[in-house]
Amino acid sequence: MADATAAASSSRGGGETTRRVLFVSAGASHTVALLSGDLVCSWGRGEDGQLGHGDAEERHRPTIVNAHKNNDISSITCGADHTTAYSNSTKTVYSWGWGDFGRLGHGNSTDLFIPQPIRVLKGLEIRQIACGDSHCLAITGDGDVFSWGRNQNGQLGLGHTDDCNIPQKVLAFQGVGVSMLAAGAEHTAAVTESGKLYGWGWGRYGNLGLGDRSDRLVPGEVAAIAGERMTQVACGWRHTISVSESGKLFTFGWSKYGQLGHGDFQDHLIPHQVEALEKIKVQSISGGWRHTMALDSEGQLYGWGWNKFGQVGCGNTEDQTSPQLVKTLVDQKTTLVVCGWRHTVAITERGNVYSWGRGTSGQLGHGDAVDCHTPKRIEILSVDGQACRHLEGSQSANSASSKWISPAERYAVVPDETLGSIVPQLHQVTHSVEDASVPDTDMKRMRMGP
């Protein structure tokens, strides 16, 4: 997540207010945008309340979150099926969506369909929030790191495996200046102000970068790469991406779909430089469920990895084991790229917003539920389109109960990818020895485990 500062909006014909999209964040099947004027809009799947509109309905077009109209939001971050937002002026963190394992930070596991403030963090300056599948972390202005949510593999970094339903301070980082956090499905990574890289949580595929496949309950320091100081880090579901001060790109972890970008499907237990991009300076990175995106200093965009729904953006649905230039956007300078689980969203310097990949829940924001294999402009949000002039707001009453659906109706069980068996218990998610797939029906995913 990167902070976004609101810019002044302007008016154009008919007194309609035009706005720019400052920042976007993407979850499993939903997307959220921060607009100039401190407005938040969201679209895609809403069955767990992750859109913040007070109901469980899908939205196929960006819709203003009315509950945030007066909250002066300055940054947003999506988890898989939940969302967080921060107001710098009021020093308040809000969260909403799927509440299992305490990932919302409110002291319980209740789903929330409208944004609610996290009381434990009230009054704290927050520099960054990172959300994974079921856990979250935050860096405060004082340099403290807090974590909360699911912790079955130690991804909270607290030295144990108990879930935490309110934010807890990560004592391992006391006195250590953490500059950036990233969260995957069940692992976490951090970069310090001194350029060191850390990993903790689930490590079966080497995604912690520590040279083995063991879990870590507290942050472990990744062996330094000679002459390189790390400045950025991002997590995919089970892989990790980092960028050095010199702009070199390193990846490690799971590579079943080529998401590491090394031209093969081999896992790596320590950071390896992506040689295909060694001659360019990488500016920013993002990790999806099984794909990776990188943006260079010239504003050119590259993607690789799992591409079943076109989420890499190269115009086909073949997995890519090495970085591919996203040719659709070569005539524009891209300034931001974010990955959802199976879709990707980007903002250009011009102020246009593009999305591509899986669209089955409307998460692409084009008004339909169709996949896109190349970037397609979201007209209602883009400067060269409608410039946010015709956005509608939440229509539901500000009450989760108005459209509440029981867990039995909402949640489905996903079969294990290799064993083909079914987890008999709903909401009893443990950890899988192999990858558990999300079915093409896009029903609520559950991972089975040991």
UniProtKB/TrEMBL annotation:
Cited PROSITE patterns: RCC1_2, RCC1_3
Pfam families linked: RCC1 (PF00415), WD40_RLD (PF25390)
Entry keywords, A to Z: Repeat
Domain RCC1-like: 18-277
InterPro entries hit by this protein: RCC1-like_dom, RCC1/BLIP-II, Reg_chr_condens, Ub_ligase/GEF_domain
RCC repeats: 38-89, 91-142, 143-194, 195-246, 247-298, 299-350, 351-403
SUPFAM superfamilies, per the entry: RCC1/BLIP-II
Signal peptide annotation: none
Highest taxon of source: Eukaryota
Protein name: RCC1-like domain-containing protein
Organism per entry: Sphagnum troendelagicum
Organism taxonomic ancestry: Eukaryota, Viridiplantae, Streptophyta, Embryophyta, Bryophyta
